[in-house]
Amino acid sequence: MKTQLRLMFRAGLIGGLIALHLTLVGMVEALNKREIIEDIITLGQLLLMGVGLGTAVYALGKLPRERRTQREGWWVALGAVSVVALILGLLALAIKPLNLRFMFQNASPALVRILTFDTPGVLGLVKLWAFLLFSGALALVYLYIPQPWDRTLSYAVGITLLMGILRALVAPLLPDIISDFLFTPSGLTQIGAVILVVLWVLFLHYWPDFKARLETWQKEAQTPQGAPIRRRLNIAFLVAILVLLLLPAILRDKGSYLFEVLDMVGIYIIMGLGLNIVVGFAGLLDLGYVAFFAIGAYTMAVLTTPELPFVRQYIPPMNFWEALPIALLLSLVSGILLGVPVLKTRGDYLAIITLGFGEIIRLLVISDLLKPILGGAQGITGVARPTFGSFVVNESWEYFYIILVTIGIGIFISTRLRDSRLGRAWKAIREDEDVAVAMGIDHVSAKLTAFATGALLAGMAGALFSSRLYSIAPHSFNVLISINVLCLLIVGGMGSLPGVVVGALALVGLPELLREFAEFRLLVYGAALVIMMLYKPEGLWPEKARVSRVAREVFGDRLKTLKVE
Amino acid sequence: MWERLRYRLRYVSGTDVALWIVAALLLVMITVGSYNSLTSGRYTGKQWFDFIISGLAQGSIYALIALGYTMVYGILFMINFAHGEVFMSGPFTAYFLAEVLEQRGLFETNPWLALGLVMLLSMAVSTVVAVSLERIAYRPLRGAPRLVPLITAIGASFFLQYTFRGLYTPGFKAYPEVQPLKGTWTLFGLEIQRMLIAVFVSSLLLLLLLYAFVQFTKVGRAIRAVAEDQQAAALMGVDVDRTISITFAVGGAAAGAAGVFYALMFRQVNFFMGFFPGLKAFTAAVLGGIGNLPGAMLGGLFLGVFESLGPSLFLEGLGVPAAYQLKDAIAFTMLVLFLIFRPTGILGERLAKRA
User: Fold this and answer.
1) Cα distance from B210 to chain A (closest Cα, Å)?
2) Hey, are the CB atoms on B155 and A352 less than 8 Å from each other?
């Protein structure tokens, strides 16, 4: 009895503190403007609901499995959620008499209205309690749904809500008639939500069958008689790629905003690929990575802009394709130049040195010292755009193709380097530098190539970035960019190429599509870094341990028992 | 003699030579710049003196923050990247108390009491933040690969920054003025701003107090024992977890006090105020030899003076326009140079290989 009470309060307090944090930081209020399902639930309420659900799940998770569905489980889960409700209720009551707004800018009457569901007096608090009890009860209900359906149902609801949240992404992809029917300007219609849940349930229910059939097809295709199947699969694959490639051109009228976001995601993917080589492959934590991005961007801008009279005395403005190789070369060289002094330092000192380098470069760019060359704090405008003959790449969906090609090159470079002798040298250095050197690896050249390749990709991203934005200013090259890129690597999984894409989509794409969320982006990044390091250090899409063909031949089945990283 | 030199030269690589050339160039630039500035007579002796005093005051604040870095590094061998945010959290929270006390007129009638209350609250908040940071984010990761806690600390740093931004305000808040610390005192015929002297003296006292705490109390001995050898300390009956928590608490309290000094000196607080002082305090800790308490204090003072003199002394002498803009760059250059050339710091310490 006593342990259960303690568990209940523990879970409730943790949940309550998280709920307090989310409300006082202003997230609930900011997200409350988005109605995810028309007249039913807003994003802010969904967030609170998530806290309630999470508290109940946490409390239940601490109980032995068989006791969860007994009376004990109900008491603990609902009790914990009630503690959360108590804490939030106290907050709602205290805001006005204690004048909490003097200190906490978000403790506003609007927040009280959200917490009490627009109902004054005791009834409002009861509503809050009931709301949280309901969200906690969802966790219990899940336990009672029979086996295959519990997952199917919860996934379907989850995906549907996600579609509502990411309306800005999903709605433009659908024909107008359907999207008008399913979506409101801020989320889903009620009918739309029901329809989507049903569709997703059906899809998820039949998905395993479909997947099994696909797998048998694939197996058949491997056999000698499978040539026709193989051909059909290949054609399907080609068609899919063609459609994906043509999608931007088809969708360009509907989603110019979508492509602005995708361009940003793409630029971050290029940077992520570069940093992945430095951090993920070679294990050199570089916090000043933004410096190379800035060098690429500034070289492109300085060489192509018609402004900057001081520079123009010597060099006439170039076009994009003339400036690009110079930008790449300069970032490559700067990667080596910055790499040389830090060769001897390792680990956390390396991180701090590179951070220092990044800041020094930013401060130099802002200063009056280099103003005639770099434009000072105002930055530079009039950066050239890429041209093909007389065709000027102007729109964001057109840029997207260039970015896509660059990503392709980046992935090609990454995979080839990863599987090369150099890649294995990096990996060895990452695992233990002393041992690697003792085994005869030239750590100087290995580290310098890592820095140089990383810098090259960052410089490429920078050149594309400045050209796409048409203008650059020094404040867009602060340490936060390095942190963002590092964060997307860690969320996606260090050293994993699909991880870079997943991380960029999740950390750069999602916040752009969720405008209300933009203010809390770095808050969530910080929390994500901590949580990932605590619970999932390998990332969402970890690098698969790859075993060489030779090793497989030598060790055969024993590999399973060998612990290969 | 020649034998030995030749022997040593065999281990000099091309990168070493390149690095030493860079270092020599920097030294030449500093000397030439300083010579130009000093001979040009652009600043009077009084002005140089002011630079030094404000540098010392600023440096003593860095020293207080650096204490937290160096103690944590001494025990856990991790850079508590979020220490700058511990420094920010105290004065930013205590601002609201200061505001209330100002409205009630306590800063008029009894400024020392008001200041003491603000200081206490700031130290308390910073301590709580530092200890919970350790408890939630760092403790579960003890024994993880070295980069893992660093990345966690970076995450925690941004989490804290934007938490306080969301809680209080994204803008600046102005600290009230303390009457007795306004104006100047005349010491030995020189006019000195009272605030600077007050900050310098009280930080120095606090530093000595903390040093005495670590050197002469039982808890302090436990801290040093854990820093020396965690397992042996545990075998001798030292509660390692508790000692580490206390270390974070001491560092947090020092940072909280430093935060109030900083807020009084610059009269404003902001959610981002911890980032640069934090980085510079880390520089100070490295300068003095990380893990070394007196070193951190010396490093802080040295960095403060260097940074305060630097722009006018050698940058202007080299003809750099608006040299004060590069004040931070000087500090970071120093950080980079020290980490590259002498990671053991001025005083040196046993941590050479660990870095």
Assistant:
1) 26
2) no
